Amino acid sequence: MNFQRVSALVRKDLKKIVRDPALLFLIIMFPVVLTIAFGFSFGAIGGTQSSTYQVGLVNMNAGGAQEQWSQYFVGNLSAIELLNIQAYSDNATAQADLVQGRIQAIVLIPANFGESCSSFLEAPNEPSSWVNASLPIYLDSGSMFATQAIPPLVQQVLVTTILGEKPTGVSLPIQLSTPSLIQTSKFTMFDYMVPGLFAYASIFLTMTVAQSFTTEREEGLLRRINTTPTSPIEFMFSQTVSNMIIAFVQALVVFVMAYVVGYRPSVSLESLVLAFTVVLVFSLCNVGFGLITATVAKSSGAATGLSFIFILPQMFLGTFVGFALSGSAQAAGRFVPSYYVTDALTSLFLRSAPITSPSVLLDLAVVSIASLTALLLGIILFRKYGKA
Amino acid sequence: MIRNLTKAFEDVTAVDGLNLEIERGELFGLLGPNGAGKTTTIKVLCGLLEPTKGSAMVGGYDVQKERAKVKELIGVCPQDTAVYPYLTGRENVELFGNLHAMPKQRLKENANRLLEKMSLLQDANRRLAKYSGGMRRRINLIMALVHDPEIAFLDEPTVAMDPQSRHAVWDFIRDLKKQGRTVVLTTHYMEEAEELCDRVGIIDHGKLIALGGPKELMGKYNEKNLEDVFIQLTGRRIRED
Questions:
Q1: N or C: which end of chain B has fewer CB within 10 A?
Q2: ipTM of the complex
């Protein structure tokens, strides 16, 4: 491989980004604007907990067996400053208020809540003896905060209530060690969104790669390069390098802008390096998707439209947007690589997971495999069918 | 050297059994109307297209089997201007020098020399998006020649150029000849071929219908110019416009 050729092609691609206003906006300015806008809109700017959110609570366990458990749960939930808990005597009234927008969520404590908690503590290692219960949560689908932040908050309170992360005066027969839970009460909605923003920005590389290849093909530039001694490996390597540089800059821009608007993750340097690595590996996936798009698209205009076949699922199922979707849609997110990028970054930034955390490493492995597969497939398809 | 070269597409035979030998240092013109098969022949010689039948050797190398060797020898100026509009004139030229792995100093000297020769030195640091069509075509040509190729394939290098630019390019091509380069020039401007070429091959419907020096062909067919030679051979003008 001749690095003079690779370097010349990389510089050419980077100059294109810097000198084409539309591309510059899409690649760099778009993440900047998005991060600032989301920072303003979702709590990173102007104080982290300036707003409170109305949550309706229906306690079906009140007056029932082991009701002290539901009382502890309600007490813990009420202690979260971000939530303003409003008690309801029945679900119908609460539902009516939810529909009318007076509250943003309902937490329905089931009648067997106390029994369920007790059964767990009596035999924590015997799941067969537990009284299983479900804790329904109804959310205002139009409230980004409700759909995104309230479920993990309630989940945390539930765990705290049962395991005693925050002792509430209950004499538990067994105190389980507290898992590494998110201190959700100190996070803003923006904090939950930042990991997805990294993936979100990088996803649009699919479009720029597809546009770049189709434009160069239309204008005879790929054919012209093919009359020089530049090998296909050198050419594809240069594309990969330039897009990884772009992805790195994007990730840096998102991180810096998020920091500027108030994002303060408690993350170590090595975790940060790993987070950037995940984003860089993910950029290969988007280069691959861009090549596949360029193979199919007849023109750069068509490439722009077709690229959304890859962009939209990744955007809606795998980034912060995915939090607002149904359970089945969120499950579908497991089939898009961006889901694992967001998950890995969420673990590193929000859950303070160590870089050796199995879940983070698993996410990185999935992203790596998906990215290499997409890149190789893109190269093979473009070389075979896309050069004409 | 081209032996029985045939290139067929789905329903068209663009080049049909072409046989041709071009000497080292020769300035050879491939003449013919649009669609005659000139560009297809050049693309096969550059390794961009696989021949359907036959073979071609460039600089002693088989274009199918030794494509990498061929690419080190050649410089190709495509018919349609293929340049990067967001790069400056100099950056476009230097990019292609780098793709040929030229030493930095030599690349800089060559780029300056060629830009000056084509009257583009003053505009060399402007982006091509701001160039006129004629200036772009001149950059298009310099990009093909910056690395001093032994063999230059110039596919209609003066098409759509104003007379002044065209004569500048003609001078440029004559210089290549003086430097001992082999030049294969395709054109449908007969006066261009008469002015520049040592020999010409006239192609029509993918077949070679005449081969020889411009004066030799005019004498052989007793015509005043190559345009009339073409009319006598095919019964129509080379350019219908």
A1: C
A2: 0.90
